[in-house]
User: What shape does this take?
Amino acid sequence: MPLVGVVVGSKSDEPQMQETLRILNEMGIEHELRVLSAHRTPEKTAEYARSAQERGIEVIIGAAGGSAALPGTLAAWTDLPVIGVPLTSSELKGMDALLSIAQMPPGVPVATVAVGSWGARNAAYLAAAILSLKHATINDAYKAFRQKQRKG
Amino acid sequence: MPLVGVVVGSKSDEPQMQETLRILNEMGIEHELRVLSAHRTPEKTAEYARSAQERGIEVIIGAAGGSAALPGTLAAWTDLPVIGVPLTSSELKGMDALLSIAQMPPGVPVATVAVGSWGARNAAYLAAAILSLKHATINDAYKAFRQKQRKG
Amino acid sequence: MPLVGVVVGSKSDEPQMQETLRILNEMGIEHELRVLSAHRTPEKTAEYARSAQERGIEVIIGAAGGSAALPGTLAAWTDLPVIGVPLTSSELKGMDALLSIAQMPPGVPVATVAVGSWGARNAAYLAAAILSLKHATINDAYKAFRQKQRKG
Amino acid sequence: MPLVGVVVGSKSDEPQMQETLRILNEMGIEHELRVLSAHRTPEKTAEYARSAQERGIEVIIGAAGGSAALPGTLAAWTDLPVIGVPLTSSELKGMDALLSIAQMPPGVPVATVAVGSWGARNAAYLAAAILSLKHATINDAYKAFRQKQRKG
Amino acid sequence: MPLVGVVVGSKSDEPQMQETLRILNEMGIEHELRVLSAHRTPEKTAEYARSAQERGIEVIIGAAGGSAALPGTLAAWTDLPVIGVPLTSSELKGMDALLSIAQMPPGVPVATVAVGSWGARNAAYLAAAILSLKHATINDAYKAFRQKQRKG
Amino acid sequence: MPLVGVVVGSKSDEPQMQETLRILNEMGIEHELRVLSAHRTPEKTAEYARSAQERGIEVIIGAAGGSAALPGTLAAWTDLPVIGVPLTSSELKGMDALLSIAQMPPGVPVATVAVGSWGARNAAYLAAAILSLKHATINDAYKAFRQKQRKG
Amino acid sequence: MPLVGVVVGSKSDEPQMQETLRILNEMGIEHELRVLSAHRTPEKTAEYARSAQERGIEVIIGAAGGSAALPGTLAAWTDLPVIGVPLTSSELKGMDALLSIAQMPPGVPVATVAVGSWGARNAAYLAAAILSLKHATINDAYKAFRQKQRKG
Amino acid sequence: MPLVGVVVGSKSDEPQMQETLRILNEMGIEHELRVLSAHRTPEKTAEYARSAQERGIEVIIGAAGGSAALPGTLAAWTDLPVIGVPLTSSELKGMDALLSIAQMPPGVPVATVAVGSWGARNAAYLAAAILSLKHATINDAYKAFRQKQRKG
Assistant: This one.
């Protein structure tokens, strides 16, 4: 049963998120991948977010470029923590997506990470950090990673 | 029966949109005003957009600041033309809203106008220009306005 | 008889607008393509915009990079709805064109879409949405497109 | 025993974070407030972050302006989830802090929220969403807040 | 007979250009002031620019905010040197006007000066420098100003 | 005897300015090319600017990237009209050079043109427009170019 | 005999630099203040920088807004370490000055500090850090300041 | 015994700093290179900075991209002058790193140089300028370089 739902706004954004999936695997975190657009398929996106918690999802990662409404839309329809990854798909190369995802209005938080590949990786690590509060095996894996990393 | 639905993302954004209402009045365009948030009240926003056309609405104007997902969310749930007004409510003073509203992904268009009060006024004029294609009295009012304006 | 006039600021901008033409075709919207510069050929541009309505044009799409005065200039000389597409032709890669097109002063609206290829496509979809208010066959084509798109 | 540590980079940043404290109170989340600078008091900051988990802290919120290294520095010294709030204290009014906090390198995630007062509030809500995964009473309070908010 | 035409895009921009007029006076340069909008009054603007040279104008100064198409439009319709002053009238406070005025396409030059009051003053000095090539009394006045200034 | 002095900040910037030279040739404007740095060779730069007028130079074009102090420094040491071309040589790709050249303080004007190749071409056209006020043959060549260009 | 020369680009910039003077006093560093403009008074500026070292100056601090060529110009004429403070005097409020000062070409370094008052203070501290390498009493004062600061 | 410590935030940043090492060699300045991350290896970074002075280091150069906390963190733990080089490693290509490094809070100065290769070279030259105050042979080498450079 997946703990993390990774949602990308468009099929063409999938390659940018392979690192997210790889790191979730490394941390032993079960996950699922969906292609859902806040703008093109709003009903499916709403349905996904609304039902995520009852299906056992604990953290949602949304990745999108340009207007990048996906993470905010997922956050609008769920109470789970949502992590937003700004992608570089548009001609403005991610600054648009960063502002769209970061500047959420009060009451509906999104946890924004860095633009592009750095953010794709940190989205997985942030999910691990959050899930570590509750899941001992994830905590062990994440702590081991951080400890090894601190040794340089 | 209103032809234009003016939607603001937050109660505190209403004053910025008074000029929109004033100009719609001047052009003789019936309209309604709603406070709906893409993030805080996603279901009401979806419901509003989905039912707008059958209620006779022909153009929707959405105004929001920061992430400013409102116009795009309205556009996601309706096939009507949607005009987006980037407001200056967040600390980044409108550049965030402009990029969020303008950088819509292909397939779900939003007609973006200028940030703040200029856009609030042009949203009404753009609605008038669009409705002029079909409604003779609006066409007369809008043409008269433009003709007088061209005289300086 | 064309309903939509697509105007590009320079011959070298034409390739960026092929998607606009393709989508207008798909929506069954007759159109014409012109190369006209607000700065290099102001008289021809003014003449085109001034005569567009009497020739049956209902929506004008203007695409330009850099200063990108084309959409605003077209809007200055016509009362028809004008859609502006910011292109990436200059060294500043579209941010200049986006601000130039979006920040129109009150009284002369332009409907701005996204920078580059996303905007080139959405200009056609926005034209379709506007024309759908009046033309049943375009309405059918656009609604079919949106409905299929919403199914993902 | 506090679950959330709220850290501000400078005494003068405290007023901007009062809303964070108010909302944490509303959600029934025990918390503590510290003034610690990544740059001026690096040892105290490191010590705080390193010992936070053993003292029972589960989420750290760091708020700073300008270079805004505080959230990233806290994240460097702890494995707990860290939320970063970009403040507007410098002359560049928050764009600097947003980029500094959001653009964390892979391996050390920070959950960035909006610039200034919007982010100050969402930092508390994001902490509530994260803690809701584990703490039933926080989950109840946060769900009640979101449910009420969705009603508009 | 005026040598310099100062054109502002809107009545409300006039106060920002008082310094231009004052300095032109100081340099003994005859001038005239017009309020003309590239967007609202395109015909009058074109007419002004087209007839300027035959009326004895040698340099045109255009000042506008936001899309700021005025200097470029004047340049499109005249072969005289045109100086563009980006004003801060829009919500984006001049960055939009600077990019709009500076990023002119090849073939239609505009001499851009600084945003706001600095540019308003330098537009007059630049006009003086240009006219000094031909008019001895302006040359004397401008050289005297620069010489005194260099003494600090 | 050259009428226009074209100065580039660095040997590696020369290719970006070939179009300037080509257009000056086309307009029949004699010119010279110098490599001079405001920062690396301040004395030579000052000497060049100070002596330009007595050597018969009437317009100076300065092109530089990054800090791009060259046009402003030339303007500091001469009373001739100086045209500044922001180049894309630095990692920030011209936005830095544009702001450095455009934001000259009151009293020392620089005529800024577009970033990179557009500006390289317009620098020559602007020089032609300025020199046309005084030199009949340049006026003929420039008017012929503009007239032909206006025909599209 | 002053060790540090503080140079501001304009009389009106002096108030922004009072904190620099205060901190230099606190550190026991003798200094002098000059108003010199790279653009308006280039000869005086060159003369100041060229003669600074022989007069015993060891560090120069240059502060300017807008094009902000002052620090780079000082660095061009001296081999001493030059610290640049971007001020907020222009309408673009310091982003222009930051880029102008930071983006110096290779071969002529400037040590850039933060925009405005933060930078005005850090310019003095950076001068103290540099001078501490050689002057024991400054080293004592600076170390004492840093040590006290680290205690919070 | 090295006088300059060059620290890069990540192994992949090393190639961007080769020019720094080459120029330090040319100036006859002994140096060492370390890979240390403010975020991934905070303890090693703190230890390096804290012990640098007693090991004879007189200037530290820190280079990093994105959040780029490295120079500021080094400056937090040492009283030595720290030079910061913003690198282009992140998707935002150096603007993020520039703001992060330049906008240091008062009390902990960092000497920021240009983004990328220009800054990599100027970091070495700035170190040379600083060390020239105390070390005669470095002073000779740096003065010779500058003198030769001034000859063009």
Notes: The mean pLDDT of chain E is 97.
